[in-house]
Write a structure and sequence with these properties.
By secondary structure, the chain is an alpha+beta fold. It is about 15% helix and about 30% strand. The protein folds into 2 domains: about 160 residues, no CATH class; about 240 residues, paralog of FGE (formylglycine-generating enzyme), CATH 3.90.1580.10.
Length: about 450
């Protein structure tokens, strides 16, 4: 009897639990999401390489050849590479010649969203031009590439960070000594690249933080100043001299009203009605209504800011103002020796100057320069860290020059600075003379007006 009662109780308990469970709302197991931006490759990497579509111009005619795919007739497969021979007929003649393409499958690497692979192009001459190509894993089409130069030997390409799609690549360029070509491993070139907003950018190191609002400027030499025979050059732009500048990151755009408002909101002492008189000339943020910038001007560069205010903003943002040398190297956009960032002739379609527009324009309105920077010419003058010295170029150090002290010294005591400071780049009201990348102007650090703004830099830390 006891056993019967026990069994009956257990059955009733099980039935009650089943009823209660049935009355509960159903719970669906959450789907496991892949890593942000991750794209699964639906085939082995080796197979995907043969389906990539490249668009390449003819080295002889300049015409787009069309879709280059490493499959079908003309393909040779080896252990470390795939080669394609493609006959090309010129449009204006019946001449046919062969172009050769080499895909280095040995060095292809797969990131979260992209495939990185070196590709060599030879139009039948003695030199092969190498490019590091970026392939969209969704479409298997190249979306960007960076040139590695001709007559190079790829040594290594490695995935440094899959999530940020960053790679490290090492290659050696062939040299000619005593009439004989050779590759010197001691002169290997090692660089790091990251995909940022669909564009392959060189970065300081493979693990450096990715900031889409800054551009990496590589270490190296450049010729600073104006040509001796330049018609518009002032004496303070001479002599032209070679300087070495360490690598750094620089803001892609000039600091905008919207950015600056975040600063004054977080630092009330720099608001329009609270800033100490010694840090401005009375017109600080003249165009603002109290603590608000003009309507529809959020993306315009902030103006009516003094050098002190620019320094305070940069410090709050973990950055600083650029030195003159840093600014000029970045502004030249890898076109060293040219009068303007885009070449030697003025172009009103590439900058806001001469009151052609009648006001500042939103940052990024005009084309970027060779480094990917906007408005390095025109829009607003940009404050630099340096003290102005008209004769500084005659005595300038050859490495990381800075007039008026040391970087650490200025950053530690900027509130006590009284000397005239440098501005660069010209503005929306400037005439053509002041748009040249070598032009220098200056004002006292308290001065503010409608054509002066700034952008910031951040050094590359080891």
């Amino acid at each position: 009897m006891k056993i019967f009662c026990l069994v009956t109780c257990l059955l009733m308990l099980a039935l009650s639990l089943q009823v209660v469970y049935a009355q509960q709302p159903s719970v669906t197991e959450p789907k496991k999401e892949s890593a942000e931006g991750f794209v699964k490759l639906e085939m082995p990497l080796e197979e995907a390489l043969t389906r990539i579509t490249f668009m390449y111009p003819s080295l002889k005619s300049g015409d787009l050849i069309g879709a280059i795919v490493f499959e079908g007739e003309g393909v040779t497969r080896e252990k470390d590479y795939i080669k394609l021979k493609k006959p090309i007929k010129l449009r204006w003649t019946e001449e046919v010649y062969n172009s050769y393409y080499t895909l280095l499958s040995k060095y292809a690497v797969e990131g979260d969203r992209y495939i990185f692979v070196p590709l060599g192009v030879n139009g039948g001459g003695s030199g092969t031009f190498w490019n590091l190509n970026v392939v969209d894993k969704k479409t298997l089409k190249t979306i960007d590439e960076v040139g590695l130069g001709d007559r190079s030997r790829i040594e290594e390409i490695a995935l440094a960070d899959a999530h940020s799609d960053t790679v490290s690549i090492t290659y050696i360029r062939r040299e000619i000594k005593k009439g004989k070509p050779f590759h010197d491993p001691k002169k290997a070139v090692a660089k790091h690249y990251r995909m940022i907003e669909g564009i392959l950018r060189e970065v300081g190191n493979p693990l450096s933080p990715s900031d889409p609002d800054t551009i990496f400027i590589p270490v190296g030499n450049f010729d600073m100043g104006s040509r001796s025979n330049a018609d518009d050059a002032e004496d303070d732009e001479k002599p032209r001299h070679t300087v070495y500048v360490d690598a750094f990151h620089i803001d892609r755009y000039e600091v905008t009203n919207a950015h600056y408002k975040k600063f004054v909101d977080a630092n009330p002492q720099w608001q329009k009605d609270r800033i100490p008189e010694k840090y401005h000339d009375g017109d600080y943020l003249k165009h603002w209504n109290g603590n608000n910038y003009p309507p529809d001007k959020g993306k315009h560069p902030v103006v009516y800011v003094s050098w002190y205010a620019a320094m305070a903003y940069a410090e709050w943002n973990g950055k600083r103002l650029p030195t003159e040398a840093e600014w000029e190297k970045a502004a030249r956009g890898d076109r060293y020796g040219r009068d303007y960032a885009w070449g030697d002739s003025l172009d009103s379609n590439k900058a806001n100057y001469g009151e052609n527009i009648g006001d500042t324009t939103p940052v990024g309105t005009y084309d970027m320069n060779g480094y990917g920077l906007y408005d390095m010419t025109g829009n607003v003058w940009e404050w630099c860290l340096d003290e102005y010295d008209a004769d500084f170029y005659a005595i300038s150090p050859s490495r990381n020059p800075l007039a008026g002290g040391t970087i650490n010294g200025i950053l530690s005591n900027w509130r006590d600075v009284r000397s005239v400071r440098v501005l660069r780049g010209g503005s929306w009201i400037s005439n053509a003379k002041f748009l040249r990348v070598s032009d220098r102007t200056r004002f006292t650090p308290r001065v503010t007006n409608k054509s002066r703004g700034f952008r910031c830099v951040k050094p590359v830390t080891p």
